[in-house]
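Bench log, entry 3. Co-assembly request; chain sequences pasted below exactly as received.
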Amino acid sequence: MKSIERADDFAARRKHLQSLTDAELQQRFWQLTEQIIAPLIAEARTHTTPAIERSVLLRMGFSSVEAKQLVSAMQQRRLLGHGAGRLVLELARRKSVPVREAGAGLLDGLYWEELVNVK
Amino acid sequence: MKLDPDKKLDIQEVLNDLEHYQPRRKGWHWRVKLEDQHIGPFIYKDTSASLRQSIPLQAAEYFQHIDPQCDFVITTEIASGRFEDDLRRMRMAAWHGADHIMVIRTTGQSHIDGLIEGTPEGIGGIPISRKQIRATRKALDAIEDEVGRPINFHSYVSGVAGPEMAVLFAEEGVNGAHQDPQYNVLYRGINMHRSFVDAAESKKILANAGILQLDGAHNANATAKQAWKVTPELFVQHAINTAYSRAAGMPSELIALSTVPPTAPPAPKLRLDLPYAIALRELFTGYKIRAQQNTRYMQSDTREVSVTHVLDTLISRLTSADIQSTITPDEGRNIPWHYNNIAGVNTARQTLMGLDGLAELIELKHDGPLRDTVRELKERAVLFLEEILAQGGYYAAVAAGQFVDQGYYPERIGDGIVRDPNGGDGAATVIIREAGYGAPVCSHFGNNIYQPKTCAVYGGCTLCDPAKIQYIDELDANDNVNKRLQGPLAEQAAGLMRPEVEKFGDGIVCVTLFVPGQAPLAELAALEMARQMGLQNPQVINRRIMHPAEGSVFEVKGKLDIAINAATLVQEAGITPLTHEEIETWVRPRDIQVIAATVGEDEHSVGLHEILDIKHGGIERYGFQCHNLGTSVAVERILDTAQQYNAAVILISTIVTHADIHKQHMRHLHELAMQRGLRDRVILVAGGAQVTDQLARQCGMDAGFGRGTTGHAVANFLVRKLREKKT
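Structure output for the full assembly:
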């Protein structure tokens, strides 16, 4: 897809900015920017991704290889919306085992049915 | 790990016990500006603490060997593809004043969905992995002790594995990182939703680890053909990443704008670049400035590139900068060579030392064309933001090709980068968080059922307890550092040395050839000359026509496949020459008389003048009392005069006219000095086109000097010899 072509109409377009002081122009620059990023940051607050979930498992003491396998398996089972870290932590609590042991169980194919209850 | 300046970095020691290595500090380190610092003969206005060990600029020889360090952090970017070679390059750069080491990632890492482990070789950079980062940080810890200044280590948190990379950097003590979701979207074709959602998490992690963030806006002027026209958009890109970072929890002092003066001569650079630089700093007061040097218009001539970079650095000093980044002057012609990293660093430090205290001397105009352009640029940027909102927001604007169009906004050429908000790498991987979503770790962004520090319930996350970090050494039995090092370490142990520019012993050399012919033919001739010199695969990497018919100069690179055994070299090379200052300090108070003459039937006395005269850099400059008796002087007369002045040194010049007459003169001088009982008291030195040190010594001289000898070399010998005699 090709983007639009347009001659430099700065002189006409700037008319509403002309009377602004430098400080007012600066304020407008940042107000507009805040408006642009507001929906983006809102999406980030309410969504997650496999990379975020892998990063959570890394922080919980899993290796990159383990985190990748766990997140991929959770994604296939449509469980990631609950948070990979939450699933592992709550499983560990139920089983009264360390989080790494809970994760190792999942990597061995165990406990997946229980994760449904965990959430 | 402790480094010895006389020993090479021991890569095996770096790799040893990496599993248990932990970074000793985290977070970014700024240089601290010292007001009115006395260094050598000068008082500096814009400097920071000097280094414990460093290699000063060459001209420092005349200024008490000072090596003042500017107040900006200085960056060098390293990209050899092998981290073990990068480490040596980092050490060299640190000795020349770099304290921000930016490690470029291998091509394609942006698209790898997950972390890489081990030490595989990269292309145009290294695959960033835990082991490579840890080894690098360990080596840098030792290097910063060696030079006496903290060194910031930096890499990239972009691509589809950003949050994991951010965790890795926070855990391993990386100090700076590029993080800008717009870079993913525009230049890496990564899905925009994925990029921004990942970015918020990454930024939170970086912020909590005190890692300085650089944005990616400068890529727009590295991409656009008419880079000075995208300046209004650059403000917009900086603003979007800055505001997004703040919203994700990053404090302003950790946000640095990556900015490049967009043009290069013959463009009227300052007139175009300075208003942009000023407008940027005004719009972004309170944020850090990482001033990069221009790459957009780099060609193959490193001198021309360096001049552009001097002007870039001038703009930094005329406005402001917190980091002065450097570009290797050869980036326009090959993957940067290590000594060109040092050349780039030296361009910045030499320029900044020369500009010290500039603010005391000049001031930028507050009215006229400069201010008018600053205002116009800001207005154009505001109009750009208005149009993004009119288009329906950021994603819709990218879809419409609003970004990296080469028109001077609001002008549009129609060549903007167009991306589909639902397409790209990682599309459809963004997942809505359920009501019970939780992430029981520190530095997490967004909705989360857990309270901060929930990680305590399982003994702490890796950011609280580094012992929890899972270290993987290698995953590939063939592509790893141990395999790669076998050859180099064996050669090193055998005392072999090969030339290199990028990787250990790569054999690459560069020769400069002026060929007096028309360009195409001259180039073929240059390549053939290189071949006959023994260079394999010669390639012209720079050409400059001096005149269409008179000739061109070529820089030709090729592989010189030879290894020199250190054991076969005469150990004289190991003696460090005395500096001019050391020689003069020793000579001047001692009133040392030197008798010089050209012997025999020889009217050529030019060589001797060059060795003696202060004007030619001869030994008089150090305070030797020289008596030049002229040409065709008899040996007897030389000795008479030596006795008269109680001379310590006799220098004779013997330019041969026939047979072995020069040998006879030397022998005669030696024998006659013996007969007169002078030989122990006077040092005899002979020079001339046919003289070698070995020959002169065979003929009874203390030393001989051949063609191309300097006064410094002779003085160096004399002082050492005179010192020996005193002891």
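The two ends of chain B are 39 Å apart (CA to CA). The first strand of chain B starts at residue 37 and ends at 39.
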